[in-house]
Amino acid sequence: MPLAKDIAIELRKMADALDKEPETEVQQCWISYVCSDRQIFLNTARLMPRPFTKKYYDEGDKYPKIKIGSKDFSGPIHWNVSAPRDVACRVIEPAKPAVYDCTPLLSEEEDAALSAEGGQ
Question: Is 102 contained in some domain?
Answer without folding.
Answer: no
